[in-house]
Amino acid sequence: MNTPSTLAPQLGAARRWRPTPLITGSAALHAGAAAALLAQPSTWPWAVGGVIASHLALAAAGLWPRSALLGPNWTRLPRAVDGSDDRRIALTIDDGPDPEVTPRVLDLLDQHGARATFFCIGDLARRHPRYVEEIVARGHAVENHSQRHRHNFSISGPSALRREIEAAQRTLTEITGMRPYFFRAPAGLRNPFLEPVLCEFGLQLASWTRRGFDTREHDGHKVAQRLLDGLAPRDILLLHDGHAARGPSGNPVVLDALPEVLRAAAMAKLRWTTLRDALDLDLDLAPATVNTAANPAVNPAATDSRQAERPRQPAGLPGRNGAGHPPFDKI
Question: Where is the composition biased (Low complexity) (predicted)?
Fold first, then answer.
């Protein structure tokens, strides 16, 4: 089971990159192979074989979304600070905003009093900013899911990763007035260059405990059952408001699965939280220096970044707040 990584006291601040044993071992193997070739060229088959095996191990780790072999990775929520029986779980929703699906997801969450974390794609957020604003206005969190959600993200080099993540960071901060604290890689796939870049921007990598495969499964009940099978406190669930598969009726399957999941969680007396609210549960804090050059969105004058930031309210956009306003999907 992976454990959430250490967090800087000033959330969103750059932090020091700490290589994992796999990465350290790979670097040592490369150095050893080079030394062996210089000392005894006839050992080249062993040296080359070792280097190839090292690269295969790193690639395999990147293809395993829930792995912590390449760096810290949130696959479950941290334990409660006071040691109490914490019943919190987190719903994460990826690949939006989507003008058709996102408003209806928000209405379902409102109906069940649930809060969620939306991992938004920067380009889509720029195209549909009012939906992102509404996510925040209704009490949910918006986090970084890259700017373009490109399929070659996991084979990109450090510069390309940095551009993609920084662009989304700027886009989402400008729209919501709150900088993201979490990043989720497209399809959960990554490479060893990602964690050092996330450290520059003070971002935490988040994957999931269980997923519904709702981008390819057309049966909402099956999606819900995948999420509910073995559901436990501190789990992180994954659904999609973007790229959602459709059921036989043509309805996005997430809209069929989500009510079943929300009802089951309520019956189990589980409480929905956002990932950024779960940051309060993590006691393992380590100092870090704010790198404003690498992370221009960081405000070094703020002693508590969450107190310093306030979500931007969507201008002229009514929301469903229990005061007689129409639901967002009726606007």
Answer: 294-303
pLDDT digits (tens, 9 = 90+) for 25-76: 888 888 888 888 888 888 888 878 888 988 888 889 889 999 999 999 999 9
User: CA 208, CA 77: separation in Å to the nearest integer?
Assistant: 9
Confidence (pLDDT) at 83: 64
pLDDT beneath 70, residues of the chain: 1-11, 82-85, 280-331
As beta bridge partners, residue 236 has: 90
HEC string of the chain? CCCCCCECCCCCCCCCCCCCHHHHHHHHHHHHHHHHHHHCHHHHHHHHHHHHHHHHHHHHHHCCCCCCCCCCCECECCCCCCCCCCCEEEEEEEEECCCCHHHHHHHHHHHCCCCCEEEECHHHHHHCHHHHHHHHHCCCEEEECCCCCCCCHHHCCHHHHHHHHHHHHHHHHHHHCCCCCEECCHHHCCCCCHHHHHHHHCCEEECCCEECCCCCCCCHHHHHHHHHCCCCCCEEEEEECCCCCECCCCCEHHHHHHHHHHHHHHHCCCEEECHHHHHHHCCCECCCCCCCCCCCCCCCCCCCHHHHCCCCCCCCCCCCCCCCCCCHHHC
**What CATH code is assigned to 88-297?**
3.20.20.370
Read off the pTM.
0.81
| C-alpha to C-alpha distance for 161 and 167, rounded to whole angstroms | 10
Torsion of CA 266, 271, 274, 276, to 10 degrees: -170
Q: pLDDT for 169-197, tens place per residue?
A: 999 999 999 999 999 999 999 999 999 99
Distance CA 237, CA 116 (A): 10
| Exposed / middle / buried, residue 13 (Cβ in 10 Å: 0-12, 13-18, 19+) | buried
